[in-house]
Design brief:
alpha/beta, TIM Barrel, 2 domains, nine-stranded mixed β-sheet, three-stranded antiparallel β-sheet, 15 helices, 14 strands, rSAM, Elp3/MiaA/NifB-like_rSAM, Heme chaperone HemW, cytoplasm
Length: about 400
């Protein structure tokens, strides 16, 4: 089941934000995330805020688009009352869950609400996640006609026994079909992969990478499997049915991914993400790592505007109750102090190839840079140019780099 919401301060029922969120807003991008919390089945490794049909307890998928549209209207009022300068959305991202379990008309309606409320910047990126078995050619064409520009398919693996361990339901042979349908519709294509599944060998992982690259995607994500408490996978490991993912094998898998993707013309722009060229990097996700603003719509969605972060109630029924009552669905929030902003900036910006300016580090952290270079974790040439850029070894040990750059923070 999904994990607990973070602790924080109570959020006002009207969602009102402090006046400080308007400071410098004109220099920050604005994105919109729309969470669609529905799945046909729950994958064994997943602890995202998603619900199968028998977990909805009175909430209905057919009502969801209207509720999301209502939150978009509420968001516009909250931002206006906080005197945040009007900004067009630079990115829109439908995530889940499986957004494409909803009819294409519902996703179109939700996107139209964003466009009618804020507008889109020229060339805005509009993405939806999709399971390979949840779309067909007509569905993808309808999304493209509505203004979607990009689709991210949850491929995860090309090896049947790995997909079975992950409780994924699609046939690997469907991947070329959905990619071609997306191409025919004019959509950019991203493929998501997971490595380190119990029982997955390095050769299995090579097969998945080669099959993914054979589709010539514009973008590819590769995430190490994390065993989350409370999931079916964690229970199976605890009972001894499966072994924990091996850290050394996962490191070998990451290195293989970087090797094969680099040889195929992809470049890494974030620790777990590669793109064919700059124009295909996920601008929505980059906005998270760069500390820009976004409004998260839907149950359990998180938002961030001007140093204030908040999160919505988790269950679709509780979310619907708030929306129907005309209240903010926010369950709690926090205002980030200077220390937290600094640590998060280091944590997030160090993960991207663009890096973070060394001049922005505190004095003790700046003295740690030479040691990070000596240990092969930070690119020396980039450091001489004034920024932190992780080496391949540094990407494998990114958490250690962050600790060394923040350990002096009080």
């Amino acid at each position: 089941m999904p994990g607990a919401l973070p602790l924080g301060d109570p959020a006002p029922r009207d969602g009102a934000l402090p006046a400080s969120v308007a400071d410098g807003a004109e220099h920050r991008h604005f994105g919109v995330y729309l969470h669609v919390p529905f799945c046909r089945v729950r994958c064994g490794y997943c602890d995202f805020n998603t619900y199968t049909a028998d977990e909805l307890r009175g909430a209905k998928r057919s009502d969801y688009a209207s509720q999301a549209v209502a939150e978009v209207a509420l968001a516009a009022g909250v931002l206006e009352r906080a005197e945040v300068p009007a900004r067009r959305a630079s990115t829109v991202f439908f995530g889940g869950g499986t957004p494409t379990l909803l009819p294409a008309a519902d996703l179109t309606r939700m996107l139209s609400a964003v466009v009618d409320t804020w507008g889109l910047e020229p060339g805005a990126e509009v993405t939806t996640e999709a399971n390979p078995d949840s779309v067909d050619a007509r569905y993808l064409a309808d999304l493209a006609a509505a203004g979607f520009t990009r689709v991210s398919f949850g491929m995860q693996s090309a090896v049947p026994h790995v997909l079975a361990t992950l409780d994924r339901t699609h046939d690997p042979e469907r991947i070329p079909l959905v990619v071609q349908w997306a191409r025919d519709a004019g959509l950019d294509v991203s493929l998501d992969l997971i490595y380190g599944t119990p029982g997955e060998s390095l050769d299995d992982w090579r097969v998945s990478l080669e099959q993914a690259l054979a589709q010539r995607p514009d973008h590819l994500s590769a995430y190490a499997l994390i065993v989350e408490e409370g999931t079916k996978l964690a229970s199976r490991i605890r009972r001894g049915e499966l072994e924990m993912p091996d850290d050394d094998l996962q490191a070998d898998m990451y290195e293989l991914a970087d090797e094969l993707l680099g040889a195929a013309g992809f470049y890494w722009y974030e620790v777990s993400n590669w793109a064919q060229e700059d124009s295909h990097a996920s601008r929505h996700n980059l906005a998270y790592w760069q500390g820009h603003d976004w409004w998260g719509v839907g149950p359990g969605a998180h938002s961030h505007v001007g140093g204030v972060r908040w999160w919505n109630v988790k269950h679709p029924a509780a979310y619907a109750d708030r929306i129907v009552a005309g209240e903010s669905p926010a369950a709690g929030r926090e205002s980030l102090d200077e220390r937290t902003r600094y640590v998060e900036s280091v944590l997030l910006r160090s993960r991207i190839r663009e890096g973070l300016p060394i001049a922005g580090l505190d004095p003790t952290a700046r003295t740690a840079v030479a040691g990070l270079i000596a240990d092969g974790l930070v690119n020396g040439a980039a450091a001489l140019a004034g920024r932190i850029e992780l080496t391949l070894r540094g990407r494998l040990l990114a958490d250690a780099v962050v600790r060394r750059l923040t350990e002096s923070v009080d």
